[in-house]
C-alpha cells in the first residue's frame, strides 16, 4: 500500500501501469490538439497532409493563420481585457474579505462565510441567467420609469465582468485567506510596538507577506476568467470573448485554426502557471 | 482606537455585502420571482405556478432533468474511482521531486480552457478522428466508427474535465494522513482492504466530499461538453435553459428551469454533506 | 507461530522472545545498521539507546516488518520472521507519535486488531473494557482521540497493542512528545505496565534517563553498531567504550598520552599538562598511547582545603568559576590553577561546601578506579 509495506511484485507493477495509463489519458486530447495545429489540411483530422506553419502565420484564404485572423485577435483582446478587470476586482474584494473573516469576530460571521462560499456551488449557467434577468429587469424598470437607457445593464462586457466576478471573488478570498491565516499576528504587533500605526503595520508587514497569495489569486482569477464559458455564454453581447468565438466556430465545423489558437492558449496558460509557481515558491 | 476599528470593520464589510447582495442574493430572488410569472397578455403578467407545472407536465423536460442528475452522479462516481488511486499514488507512494512533478502534470490540462479539452476529445472520437483511424489501421474495424454524439462520449468528456477538481482535494487530504497511521494498521493485523475501509477512506472523507461536490456541480452545470460531444440533442438540462433564454426568449420558463437546477444541486450537495457528516465550511473553506 | 507440542527450550523460557542475528541494513552505500546481534529474554524490558540517526529506528522498523534487512536474521520465539508480513508478525509497535486512528473512537482504536482477527463483537467489547480497566481508563471508550491528554493517549496506544497479546512490544521513543513532568511520570508508569502485562518490551530512545530508569538491559548504539549491552549500572560505572562513557551520564573528559602504567592503573599526561589518574579496567593500553579519561562529576571529592580531602590519587586545586544551582542536582564549574578545561563537580547540598561561591578556592580529588581510561581520543 505505501512503500514501507511489502507488496507482491505483480500488484506494484499493475499499480504503476495504471498511473501511466492515467497520465496518457490526461495528455492525449491536448497532444492531438497541439499536433493537428501543424497539419497542412482543411480539417483537424487524419490523414496527415504534411507539416505547416500556415495556421499560425498564413495570410491567404482558406489558410489564414491566427495572427492574421481579425475576429480571433479581437476576441483575444476582449477576453484579456475582461480577465484583467475581473482579476483586479476580485483580488481587491478578496483581500478585503480575507481580512474581514480573519481579523474580526462579529454576529452572522459564520452565516456570511457560508454565504461567501455559495457561488462555488451555484451552477455557472444559473449565476449567468440570474444576473441577466436581474439586470435586464432593472434596465427595463429604469427605462420605463425615468426614460434612462443604461446600455451597461444589457448583455455585454460589463455584465460578463460582473458575472465572472461574482464567483471568482470567492476563489480569490479563499486563496488569500489561506495565507493570511498562517500569518503570525505578533509580527504586526511588533511593528506597532516599534512605532507603526495599525494601517502602516498592515501596509508594511502584512501586505508584503501576502504578496505571493495576491499574485497567485490574480493569476488564478485571470485564468478562470479567460477560460470561463458557462456564465459568459448567458451574458455575452456583441463583443464575444475568445471562448465564445471559438465555440461558435466549433459548432460550424472546425479548421486547424482552432488548434493553433488552442496551442497558443496552452502555452500562455502554462507560462502563467509557471510564473505563479515560481512566485509561490519564494 | 475603538472607533478606528469599527470604521475598519465597516469598510471591509461593505464590499462583501455589496457583492453578495447585488450579484448573488437579489438576482436569485429576482430570478425566482420571474419564474413565478405567467404571461397573460402583452406586457401583462400574473403570479402563478404555470411554469413549474409546464416543467412537471412535459415528459421531455422532466426526463432531461432526471437524466442530467443521474449522469452527473455517475460522472462523479467514475471520477472518484479513477482519481482515488492516482491521488493516493501521488500523496503516499512517491516523495520529493517526483511527487511535485506528478502533481503538476495533473494540473497542466486544466490551465487550458475546457473548450480546448473538449475539442481534443472531438478530434479523437469523431468518425474521421484519431481513434477511428487507429482502429481501422489495426484491423479491428472495417469502416470508420462514429464515437461522438452518444452518452459515453459525454461521460468521457465530463470525467476528463472534472478530474483535477477530484485529484487536488484528495491529494491534499491523503497527504495529511501520517504514514505511521497506515503502518500501525498493518502492525495491528490489518490488510490492504480493511485499512482502506477503516483508515484511509474515513480520513480522506473531507477530500472525497469536497471533490465530489465540485465535480457534481461542474457536471450538472456543464453546457459545453454535452453540447459538443453529445451533439445538439444530447438532452442536457442546461441546454433547455439556454434554449428558453436565448432561442425561444421565454424567460419565465427559463428562470423556472434555472431554479429547478439550483434546487437539484443544493439538495444533492446538502444530502452529500449530511450523509458524511461534513459541513460546507470544512469541505470548501 | 506453530509451537512444537513440547519444547524444553520454550517451556523453560530458554528461547529468547526476540533475537537478532548479525542484522545489517544498507541504504545504497550508507550503512544504517551493521552486524547487530542481540537477544531479549522473555518478560524483560530491553532498550536501545543512541543519538538520533544512529540506526535504532531502522532496527525497530526491521523487527516490525516495515524494512527488509540487507542480511542477517530476526527470530521471534525461535522462529525467523523475515518472510512474515508486518500484519502477520507477533510483534506490535507503539509509534513515535502514537499513530492512534483519529477517525475512530478509543474503543474502536483498541478493538481494531481484534476485529482483524475476526473476533465476535461481544468478545471484542469485553476485551476492550478489560484492557481499559487495566490501564486505569475505564470511562474513555466512547471518547475521541483528540479529547485525551498526552499521558492518556500513551496508555491507549499501549493498550491497543496489548489486547493482541504480542510476543514483543516495540516502542519507538513514545515519550518524546511529552513535556518533562509528564515524561518523568510516564517512565514509572511504563515500567509498571510492562511488569503488569508481563510482556517483552523493546524500547528505543535517545534519552538516557528513560533507558536507565526503565530497562533491564540496555544496548548503546552508535553509528549503526552496538557499542555495549548491559544493565544500567554496568553502562554507567563500567562503560566499555569511550562513546558509552561520554554518552551515558555526564562526565569530565581529559585527553592526552599514557605516561605510566601500574597494573590497571593509568597515569595520563593531559594535553594541558595535568597529570590525571584513571583505570584501564583490563583494556589494552601501552605507554605513549593517546588516551582519554572520563570522570563522573559525582565521583569527584570536593573540599575547601587540601587537608580535608581523603588523600585521593589525583588532586587538583582551583577556583570556582560558576555555581549551577539546581537543587539536589547542583554543580559547580572549577577552573584548575594549572589551566585546562573547566571541571564539572557535583555540589552536595549538605556540609561546608554547600555555600560555595564564585571565586572561592577549592580542592578536588578522585581515586584511579573512578576514572575510566580508553585508548584513542584524538578527536
Number of domains of chain B: 1
Give the terminus-to-terminus CA distance of chain B: 31 Å
Side-by-side strand order of the widest sheet of chain B: 1-2
Count of runs of 4 or more consecutive helical residues of chain C: 9
- Beta-strand content bin of chain C: 25-35%
CATH superfamily of chain B: MetI-like
Helix content of chain C: 10-25%
The CATH class of chain B is identified as Mainly Alpha
Mean pLDDT over all positions of chain B: 88
The CATH topology of chain B corresponds to MetI-like fold
Q: Report the CATH C-level class of the largest domain in chain C.
A: Alpha Beta
Work out the largest interface and the residue count of each chain: A-B, 88 and 86 residues
- What is the overall shape of chain C? elongated
Radius of gyration of chain C: 25 Å
| Strand-residue proportion of chain B | under 5%
Provide structural commentary.
The complex is a heterotrimer of chains A (282), B (285) and C (379). Chain A has 282 residues and is mainly alpha-helical. Helices cover 73% and strands 1% of the residues of chain A. In chain A, helix 3 packs across helix 6 and helix 5 (124-146) packs across helix 6 (157-182). The two termini of chain A are 34 Å apart. Chain B has a single domain (69-284), classed as Orthogonal Bundle (MetI-like fold). In chain B, a hairpin with a 2-residue loop joins strand 1 and strand 2 (44-47). Chain C is of the alpha+beta class and 379 residues long. Chain C has helices at 8-11, 56-64, 106-116, 121-134, 150-162, 180-197, 208-214, 232-237, 242-247; strands spanning 18-27, 30-40, 45-49, 71-76, 79-80, 91-94, 168-172, 200-205, 217-222, 225-230, 252-262, 265-270, 275-279, 290-295, 301-303, 314-324, 331-336, 343-346, 361-366, 371-375. In chain C, strand 12 (265-270) and strand 13 (275-279) form a beta hairpin. Chains in contact: A-B, A-C, B-C. The A-C interface holds A 4-6 and C 61, 65-68, 85-86.
Amino acid at each position: 500500500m505505501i512503500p514501507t509495506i511489502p507488496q507482491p511484485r505483480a500488484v506494484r507493477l499493475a499499480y504503476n501501469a495504471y498511473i501511466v495509463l492515467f497520465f496518457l489519458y490526461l495528455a492525449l486530447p491536448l497532444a492531438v490538439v497541439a499536433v493537428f495545429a501543424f497539419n497542412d489540411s482543411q480539417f483537424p483530422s487524419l490523414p496527415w497532409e504534411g507539416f505547416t506553419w500556415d495556421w499560425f502565420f498564413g495570410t491567404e484564404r482558406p489558410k489564414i493563420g491566427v495572427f492574421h485572423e481579425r475576429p480571433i485577435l479581437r476576441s483575444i483582446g476582449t477576453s484579456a481585457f475582461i480577465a484583467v478587470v475581473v482579476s483586479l476586482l476580485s483580488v481587491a474584494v478578496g483581500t478585503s474579505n480575507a481580512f474581514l473573516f480573519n481579523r474580526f469576530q462579529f454576529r452572522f460571521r459564520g452565516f456570511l462565510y457560508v454565504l461567501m462560499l455559495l457561488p462555488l456551488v451555484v451552477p455557472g449557467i444559473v449565476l449567468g441567467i440570474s444576473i441577466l434577468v436581474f439586470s435586464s429587469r432593472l434596465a427595463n424598470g429604469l427605462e420605463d420609469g425615468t426614460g434612462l437607457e443604461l446600455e451597461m445593464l444589457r448583455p455585454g462586457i460589463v455584465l460578463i465582468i460582473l458575472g465572472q466576478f461574482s464567483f471568482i471573488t470567492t476563489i480569490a478570498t479563499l486563496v488569500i485567506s489561506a495565507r493570511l491565516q498562517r500569518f503570525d499576528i505578533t509580527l504586526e504587533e511588533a511593528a506597532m510596538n516599534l512605532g507603526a500605526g495599525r494601517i502602516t503595520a498592515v501596509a508594511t508587514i502584512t501586505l508584503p507577506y501576502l504578496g505571493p497569495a495576491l499574485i497567485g489569486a490574480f493569476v488564478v482569477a485571470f485564468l478562470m476568467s479567460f477560460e470561463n464559458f458557462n456564465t459568459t455564454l448567458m451574458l455575452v453581447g456583441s463583443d464575444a470573448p475568445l471562448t465564445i468565438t471559438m465555440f461558435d466556430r466549433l459548432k460550424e465545423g472546425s479548421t486547424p485554426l482552432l488548434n493553433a489558437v488552442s496551442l497558443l492558449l496552452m502555452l500562455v496558460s502554462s507560462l502563467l502557471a509557471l510564473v505563479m509557481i515560481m512566485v509561490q515558491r519564494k | 482606537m475603538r472607533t478606528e476599528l469599527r470604521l475598519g470593520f465597516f469598510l471591509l464589510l461593505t464590499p462583501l455585502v455589496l457583492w453578495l447582495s447585488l450579484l448573488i442574493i437579489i438576482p436569485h430572488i429576482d430570478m425566482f420571482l420571474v419564474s413565478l410569472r405567467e404571461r397573460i397578455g402583452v406586457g401583462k403578467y400574473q403570479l402563478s405556478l404555470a411554469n413549474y407545472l409546464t416543467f412537471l407536465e412535459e415528459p421531455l423536460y422532466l426526463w432531461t432533468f432526471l437524466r442530467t442528475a443521474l449522469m452527473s452522479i455517475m460522472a462523479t462516481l467514475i471520477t472518484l474511482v479513477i482519481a482515488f488511486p492516482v491521488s493516493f499514488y501521488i500523496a503516499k507512494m512517491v516523495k520529493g521531486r517526483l511527487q511535485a512533478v506528478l502533481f503538476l502534470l495533473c494540473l497542466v490540462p486544466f490551465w487550458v480552457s475546457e473548450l480546448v479539452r473538449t475539442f481534443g476529445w472531438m478530434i479523437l472520437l469523431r468518425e474521421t478522428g484519431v481513434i477511428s483511424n487507429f482502429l481501422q489501421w489495426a484491423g479491428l474495424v472495417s469502416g470508420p466508427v462514429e464515437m461522438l454524439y452518444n452518452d459515453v462520449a459525454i461521460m468521457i468528456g465530463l470525467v476528463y474535465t472534472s478530474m483535477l477538481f477530484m485529484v487536488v482535494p484528495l491529494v491534499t487530504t491523503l497527504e495529511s494522513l501520517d504514514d505511521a497511521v497506515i503502518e500501525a494498521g498493518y502492525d495491528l493485523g490489518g490488510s490492504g482492504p480493511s485499512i482502506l475501509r477503516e483508515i484511509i477512506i474515513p480520513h480522506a472523507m473531507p477530500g472525497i466530499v469536497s471533490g465530489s461536490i465540485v465535480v457534481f456541480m461542474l457536471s450538472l452545470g456543464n453546457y459545453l461538453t454535452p453540447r459538443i460531444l453529445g451533439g445538439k440533442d444530447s438532452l442536457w438540462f442546461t441546454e433547455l435553459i439556454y434554449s428558453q433564454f436565448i432561442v425561444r426568449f421565454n424567460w419565465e420558463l427559463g428562470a423556472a428551469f434555472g431554479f429547478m437546477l439550483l434546487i437539484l444541486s443544493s439538495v444533492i450537495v446538502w444530502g452529500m454533506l449530511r450523509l458524511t457528516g461534513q459541513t460546507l465550511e470544512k469541505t470548501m473553506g | 507461530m506453530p509451537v512444537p507440542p513440547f519444547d524444553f527450550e520454550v517451556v523453560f523460557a530458554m528461547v529468547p522472545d526476540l533475537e537478532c542475528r548479525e542484522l545489517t541494513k544498507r541504504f545504497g552505500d550508507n550503512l544504517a545498521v551493521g552486524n547487530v546481534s542481540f537477544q531479549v529474554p522473555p518478560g524483560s524490558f530491553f532498550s536501545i539507546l543512541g543519538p538520533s540517526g544512529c540506526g535504532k529506528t531502522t532496527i525497530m522498523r526491521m523487527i516490525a516488518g516495515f524494512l527488509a534487512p540487507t542480511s542477517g536474521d530476526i527470530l521471534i520465539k525461535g522462529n525467523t520472521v523475515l518472510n512474515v508480513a508486518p500484519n502477520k508478525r507477533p510483534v506490535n509497535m507503539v509509534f513515535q507519535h502514537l499513530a492512534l486512528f483519529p477517525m475512530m473512537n478509543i474503543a474502536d482504536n483498541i478493538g481494531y486488531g481484534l476485529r482483524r482477527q475476526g473476533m465476535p463483537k461481544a468478545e471484542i467489547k469485553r476485551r476492550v473494557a478489560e484492557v481499559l480497566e487495566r490501564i486505569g481508563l475505564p470511562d474513555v471508550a466512547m471518547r475521541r482521540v483528540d479529547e485525551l491528554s498526552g499521558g492518556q493517549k500513551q496508555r491507549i496506544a499501549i493498550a491497543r497493542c496489548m489486547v493482541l497479546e504480542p510476543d514483543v512490544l516495540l516502542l519507538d521513543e513514545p515519550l518524546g512528545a511529552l513535556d518533562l513532568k509528564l515524561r518523568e511520570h510516564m517512565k514509572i508508569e511504563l515500567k509498571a505496565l510492562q511488569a503488569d502485562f508481563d510482556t517483552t518490551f523493546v524500547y528505543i530512545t535517545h534519552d538516557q534517563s528513560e533507558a536507565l530508569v526503565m530497562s533491564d538491559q540496555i544496548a548503546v548504539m552508535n553509528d549503526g553498531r552496538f557499542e555495549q549491552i548491559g544493565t544500567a549500572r554496568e553502562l554507567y560505572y563500567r562503560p566499555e567504550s569511550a562513546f558509552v562513557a561520554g554518552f551515558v551520564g555526564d562526565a569530565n573528559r581529559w585527553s592526552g598520552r599514557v605516561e605510566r602504567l601500574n597494573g590497571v592503573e593509568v597515569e595520563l599526561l593531559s594535553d594541558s599538562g595535568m597529570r590525571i589518574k584513571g583505570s584501564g579496567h583490563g583494556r589494552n593500553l601501552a605507554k605513549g598511547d593517546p588516551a582519554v579519561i572520563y570522570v563522573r562529576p559525582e565521583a569527584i571529592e570536593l573540599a575547601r582545603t587540601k587537608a580535608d580531602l581523603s588523600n585521593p590519587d589525583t588532586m587538583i586545586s582551583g577556583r570556582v568559576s560558576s555555581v549551577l544551582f539546581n537543587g539536589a542536582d547542583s554543580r559547580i564549574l572549577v577552573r584548575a590553577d594549572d589551566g585546562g578545561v573547566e571541571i564539572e563537580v557535583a555540589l552536595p547540598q549538605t556540609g561546608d561546601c554547600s555555600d560555595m561561591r564564585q571565586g572561592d578556592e577549592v580542592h578536588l580529588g578522585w581515586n584511579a578506579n573512578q576514572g575510566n581510561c580508553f585508548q584513542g581520543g584524538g578527536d
